């Protein structure tokens, strides 16, 4: 493991300590590692669309809106190769929250998320992506090939 030393002025150090305490970190090193990972991932996702990612897409919609649930489900079926899992939560009488776990190319995941979030009636949409390396494997104990997703940071 590489050891880095940084110098911070007192005000920045105090703000950083308050930040890591509020987030529940027990030490500065782990907080710095997470901040570095977050920035590396954001930079990679800005530059690349050909790489792969795993992602969560969450959005809220009013299930009373005409045909909205059917339209969103249809979009998911049209892109079934991206969807690993989904969860549907009834928030109240009118609103539903859906969370979809996705895996695919960065471009295809972004395009799918934009398509869902741009659907009339969908609101509060959010996409979170983590760049990964995808490896195809077939173990001797299984009779079918399968994928492994390994985070890049």
From TrEMBL:
Occurrences of domain Transcription factor NikR nickel binding C-terminal (ranges): 54-130
An individual GO BP term: response to nickel cation
Pfam families linked to this entry: NikR_C (PF08753), RHH_1 (PF01402)
Molecular-function GO terms, alphabetical: DNA binding; DNA-binding transcription factor activity; nickel cation binding
Cofactor needs: Ni(2+)
Cofactor note: Binds 1 nickel ion per subunit.
Signal peptide from the UniProt entry: none
Binding, Ni(2+): 77, 88, 90, 96
Annotated InterPro entries: Acetolactate_synth/TF_NikR_C (IPR027271), ACT-like_dom_sf (IPR045865), Arc_rbn_hlx_hlx (IPR013321), CopG (IPR002145), CopG/NikR_regulator (IPR050192), Ni_resp_reg_NikR (IPR022988), Ribbon_hlx_hlx (IPR010985), TF_NikR_Ni-bd_C (IPR014864)
Domain Ribbon-helix-helix protein CopG: from-to ranges: 2-41
Keyword Nucleotide-binding recorded: no
Residue ranges of coiled coil: none
Keywords for the protein's UniProt record, in alphabetical order: DNA-binding, Metal-binding, Nickel, Transcription, Transcription regulation
Family: Belongs to the transcriptional regulatory CopG/NikR family.
HAMAP family per the UniProt record, alphabetical: NikR (MF_00476)
UniProt name for this protein: Putative nickel-responsive regulator
Native species: Nitrosospira briensis
């Amino acid at each position: 493991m590489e050891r880095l030393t940084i110098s911070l002025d007192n005000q920045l150090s105090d703000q950083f300590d308050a930040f890591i305490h509020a987030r529940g970190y027990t030490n500065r090193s782990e907080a710095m590692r997470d901040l570095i990972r977050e920035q590396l991932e954001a930079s990679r996702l800005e530059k690349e669309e050909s790489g792969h990612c795993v992602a969560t897409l969450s959005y809220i919609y009013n299930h009373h809106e005409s045909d909205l649930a059917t339209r969103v489900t249809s979009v998911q079926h049209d892109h079934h190769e991206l969807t690993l899992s989904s969860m549907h939560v009834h928030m109240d009488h009118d609103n539903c929250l859906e969370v979809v776990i996705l895996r695919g190319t960065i471009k295809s995941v972004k395009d799918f998320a934009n398509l869902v979030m741009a659907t009339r009636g969908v609101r509060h949409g959010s996409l979170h992506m983590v760049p990964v390396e995808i490896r195809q494997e077939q173990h001797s104990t299984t009779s079918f090939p399968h994928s492994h997703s390994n985070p890049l940071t």
